[in-house]
Specification:
The complex is a heterodimer. Chain A is an alpha/beta fold. Chain A folds into two domains: about 1-35, no CATH class; about 35-180, Rossmann fold. In chain A, about 25% of the residues lie in helices and about 30% in strands. Chain A is built from five helices and 14 strands. In chain A, strands 7-8-6-9-10-11-12-14 form an eight-stranded mixed β-sheet. Chain A has a two-stranded antiparallel sheet with strand order 1-4. By secondary structure, chain B is mostly helical. Chain B has helices spanning about 5-15, 20-30, 35-45, 50, 55-70, 80-95, 100-125, 130-145, 155-170, 170-175, 180-195, 200-215, 225-250, 255-270, 275-290. Chain B starts with a helix and ends with a helix. Classes of the chains: A alpha/beta, B mainly alpha.
Chain lengths: ~180, ~290
């Protein structure tokens, strides 16, 4: 896939004293800036589903990932992931909500940047659930949030709160903890 | 065709050849547009020693061959082009008074330029090796042309730009990583000569950017995170390589929407969202004005 596409604008180019005009490739043209970060976050979220242990009762039925807020590129990537992958016997189910009160119990909840102001309320709302809450914001990791995405040296990184995960009866693997910045 | 009038004048003035002379017959057929017949006649005439010392024989042959090629520039006739050029060079060697130098040089120039034009068409057909060979032929001929005005940096830069863009084409890139290197090399040839060339700077920036983005989007979802960290080192490196070239292009034309969008894309890839927003804002303003 090429994101800056070649287009053949036929700008006539003449060699001096040349009889024939020559059509040349004149410019590379841009189409759209793809959101590579959506693909990257989808890979991370899928890995979280692999390297975090949920209580036994959560390992039956579909594995539900909810996006809170609008992030169409991530939704698209996650749906793509869901069409290709499973978590053991569990199929992935992707849902998007904009109203906090309507968010159902789910395995992973990703909070889009536009909803960062509602993190505290959300944590309260899902306090008793076995939900991995993933935020994507600068600053300290909020109460109730298990994992937060951040960037360091141009790269996607994540920080993890083992305590917050424990409150939701979630257990990260040692491998995941090694790759993350642990905040407690 | 107009130059042949000089020959006719020459022939009539000096009375060198009679009506049955094969050279004048070839000339007549040429003037009547019977090129194949003219070719047969001139080829036959040049088998004879007496005609081999006649400058006018090579002159007529050059024009006949040139026009056959010009009317039908197929692969089968490419050899006629080369022979026409040889004939015209022979005329230059024999024309001590320089009587036909101007029109002979003009014909060589024309035929030489067709090698260049062929090269450009071959690039579009993804016949890259043929294109390079045709360009080299153009270049070597242009160099030996007396008082040549064909050898220009611009012609060379345009060729290598077209070649680079041809190699950078999506379908071509999918054929193998060698084409990434070839595209990079072609753009760098242009920049070595003209470091401020906007298209070359932009294209090289795009090449690196596209490579990084493609690698990311082609990743499998189950890419292990420890491997992903190393993977990101490489893609970040590509975004970083893209940035100075796109910035150079921006300096050449700060209002080029393609370039601004390119800069936004690269900064997005580098997770430099402040600069991403800055360029997106510039882009929106430009589009609003436009």
């Amino acid at each position: 896939m090429i994101f800056f596409k070649n287009i053949l604008r036929t700008r006539s180019f003449w060699i001096q004293a040349c009889v024939l005009p020559v059509a040349i490739f004149s410019f590379l043209s841009f189409s759209i800036v793809p959101d590579i970060n959506a693909k990257v976050k989808a890979i991370f979220l899928y890995n979280f589903s692999k390297y975090i242990e949920w209580p036994a009762e959560q390992t039956v039925g579909n594995f539900k990932i909810v996006i809170f807020g609008n992030y169409p590129a991530l939704e698209m990537e996650l749906r793509q992931m869901a069409s290709q992958k499973t978590r053991g016997a569990q199929r992935f189910e992707i849902e998007v909500y904009n109203d906090l009160m309507k968010i159902p119990e789910c395995h992973i909840l990703y909070i889009a940047k536009s909803k960062n102001g509602e993190v505290s309320k959300l944590s309260d709302h899902l306090k008793l659930s076995n939900t991995l809450i993933v935020s994507d914001k600068d600053g300290p990791l909020s109460n109730g949030v298990g994992i937060n995405f951040y960037y360091e040296h141009n790269k996607q990184k994540f920080e993890i709160s083992v305590d917050n995960l424990s409150e939701h009866q979630l257990k990260p693997s040692d491998q995941l903890k090694l790759l993350a910045k642990t905040v407690d | 065709m107009k130059y042949i009038i000089h020959i006719l004048f020459l022939i009539v003035s000096f009375g060198a050849f009679g009506q049955s002379n094969p050279l004048s017959s070839a000339l007549r057929l040429y003037q009547e547009g019977q090129l194949e017949e003219a070719k047969q006649l001139i080829d036959s005439a040049l088998q004879e020693e007496v005609n081999q010392s006649q400058m006018v024989a090579y002159y007529i042959k050059g024009f006949i061959y040139k026009d056959i090629f010009k009317n039908n520039p197929t692969a089968a006739n490419k050899n006629l082009r080369a022979q026409a050029i040889q004939c015209f060079f022979q005329v230059i060697r024999m024309d001590e008074e320089g009587r036909y130098l101007a029109e002979t040089k003009q014909s060589i120039k024309y035929l030489t330029s067709t090698y260049y034009n062929d090269a450009m068409v071959m690039i579009q057909a993804e016949r890259f090796e043929d294109a390079i060979n045709s360009y080299y032929k153009f270049d070597s001929l242009a160099e030996i042309l007396p008082d040549s005005s064909l050898v220009t940096d611009s012609a060379r830069d345009q060729f290598y730009l077209a070649l680079g863009i041809g190699y950078a084409d999506e379908d071509v890139q999918q054929k193998g990583s060698v084409y990434f290197d070839k595209a990079e090399n072609a753009f760098k040839i242009v920049l070595a000569n003209d470091s401020l060339n906007e298209v070359a700077n932009y294209s090289l920036g795009v090449l690196y950017y596209n490579e990084a983005v493609n690698r990311i989007l082609e990743l499998n979802f189950d890419e292990e995170l420890d491997e992903f960290d190393k993977f990101e080192d490489d893609t970040i490196e590509l975004f970083k390589k893209a940035l100075p070239y796109m910035q150079n292009a921006y300096e050449q034309d700060p209002e080029d929407e393609n370039v601004i969008e390119g800069l936004a894309g690269i900064h997005h890839g580098l997770r430099d969202f402040d600069n991403y927003e800055r360029y997106m804002k510039e882009l929106k303003a430009l589009r609003k004005d436009g």
